[in-house]
Amino acid sequence: MSKKKTENVSVFALGGVGEIGKNMYVVELDDDIFVIDAGLMFPGDEMLGIDIVIPDITYLKENKDRIRAIFITHGHEDHIGGLSYVLRDLKHVPVYGTKLTLGLIELKLKEAGLLKEVDLRLIDAKTKLTIADHFITFFRVNHSIPDCVGVCIQTSQGAIVHTGDFKFDYTPVDGKQSDFNKLAAIGQRGVLCLLSDSTNAERPGQTGSESLVGTELNDVIYQPKAASSSPRSLRTCTVYNKCSRQPRRTTVKWPSSAVAWSISLKWHRSSITFVSNRRHSSSFHK
Ligand SMILES: [Zn+2]
């Protein structure tokens, strides 16, 4: 925990509030700056000629010597897609992420020619860090991609808790539930600020489990000649698993060839065709 009892705390977003994409939060404790996520946003129809939209990091560039870490909650584009652009100006800042998240980031940095210049540090949901006298922990959350964490930055005035994207999934595909006990303990100790994913928060009811997606896909895949699914890795894995039991060809169309190739590493057992929206198109057969 921070030693001072009256540290100045600032929390603000450089993207991701009131919009879908370019998620980036900044937590400032006295002179120390922590960044959470560095996502991109896909351009709307009115943005002709624009490939991607990234957060405005002018403030970070002007204060780059005070940035202590970038924490990445999970590997979706709207949380990692801006990282290779942000790091061009902030190469000295260590980037913390879980195994899958760092794997996806590595591929992006390799494409950008930055991989050898960036300090990537592996964490998991049990990692505890002390950075510049500030105590930081993580907790596992469920989402539509594996290996997601929330971030808890402790201050003397209570915790600053960033959930990342999450849902409470009691039957997750990978069998690893959110850290409910850890969340309860954080709440009991006192929370100064909760930064929570709010997608669909105004809709009554509860978001269904990812494992239900597989059941519904059975009907979709086994009947028509072709089907498509949203670009979420757990769902894409589910689609592939279903298709692999049928004489079907699986085609992955993705805005980033890096993501497609990372999936290919996991799916090397069969013949998969990857089609990227960018100039790279890849086929992977084995
Ligand atoms: Zn997400």
Please tag this protein with its features:
286 residues; alpha/beta; Metallo-beta-lactamase, Chain A; 2 domains; six-stranded mixed beta sheet; five-stranded mixed beta sheet; 8 helices; 25% strand; globular; disordered C terminus; binds zinc ion
Which secondary structure elements does this structure contain, and how are they paired or packed?
Blueprint: E1 9-15, E2 24-29, E3 32-36, H1 58-62, E4 67-71, H2 77-80, H3 83-86, E5 95-97, H4 99-111, E6 120-122, E7 128-131, E8 134-141, E9 148-155, E10 158-162, H5 180-189, E11 191-195, H6 210-222, H7 233-244, E12 250-254, H8 257-266, E13 272-276, E14 282-284
Parallel strand pairs: 3-4, 4-5, 5-6, 10-11, 12-13
Antiparallel strand pairs: 1-2, 2-3, 7-8, 8-9, 9-10, 13-14
Bound molecules: zinc ion.
Spatial extent as radius of gyration: 20 Å
- The CATH architecture term of the largest domain is 4-Layer Sandwich
Strand order of the largest sheet: 1-2-3-4-5-6
The helix/strand order is EEEHEHHEHEEEEEHEHHEHEE
Question: Percent of residues in beta strands?
Answer: 25-35%
The low-confidence parts are: 267-286
Global shape? globular
Tell me about the biggest sheet? 6 strands, mixed
Helix content: 10-25%
Average pLDDT rating: 83
Tally of individual helices: 8
CATH structural fold name of the largest domain: Metallo-beta-lactamase, Chain A
